[in-house]
Amino acid sequence: MPIAIEPAAGEGMSPRMPVSVGAHVHAAALDEALLHGTPPDRTQLLRARAAWLTAPRRRRIVAKGLNTSIRRGAIPWSRIAMTTRVRVSPEAATDARAALEQLARRLLSPVAPAPAGVILARRLLTDGVGPLYAPSAEPGALRRAAEHALLACGS
């Protein structure tokens, strides 16, 4: 199934809607297009979404989330207060610590990463059933996902 990178006529874009709003409204489809290799300069929406993803502020937020997850994964269960937060898998966080730290450093580097790398890093943090939070039947899943995001960031 092709990924829609521009909304069809009448689907949420009006001539007066700012491109940044359209990029936010269609973020999921645009992210998929960027992950599948569509160049950000193909459309105004992709360009706006890529700029939002790779903005220094957004990258700092994702890097901080990765570093926080590493710290939370090291906290023993006995020291965890009752919370509504999804618990970071300690085994996964320990195994993936070096890859997560490297990914966080790459996101903070002065050279902006490719949008696909930021998308994958954000998904690590936001997917509540992903390898950061769910103990995987497959050891090393979080480490491989972090390495994949790092590779997608480019050099």
Say how many strands there are.
0
Q: Give the N-terminus to C-terminus distance in angstroms.
A: 31 Å
Class from helix and strand fractions: mainly alpha
Number of domains: 2
Tally the helices: 7
Helix content: 55-70%
Q: How does the overall form come out from the CA principal axes?
A: elongated
SSE pattern: HHHHHHH
**Average pLDDT:** 86
- Which blocks of ≥5 consecutive residues have pLDDT under 50? 8-12
Tell me the radius of gyration.
17 Å
Largest sheet: none
What percent of residues are in strands?
Answer: under 5%
Describe this structure in words.
With 155 residues, this protein is an all-alpha fold. It has 2 domains: 1-54, no CATH class; 55-153, no CATH class. It has 7 helices and no strands. The longest helix is centred in the middle third of the chain and has 19 residues, at 90-108. It is elongated and about 50 Å long. The relative contact order is 0.13. The model is unreliable at 8-12 (pLDDT under 50).
Question: What are the main properties of this structure?
Answer:
155 residues; 2 domains; 7 helices; 57% helix
Quick gist of this model?
With 155 residues, the chain is mostly helical.
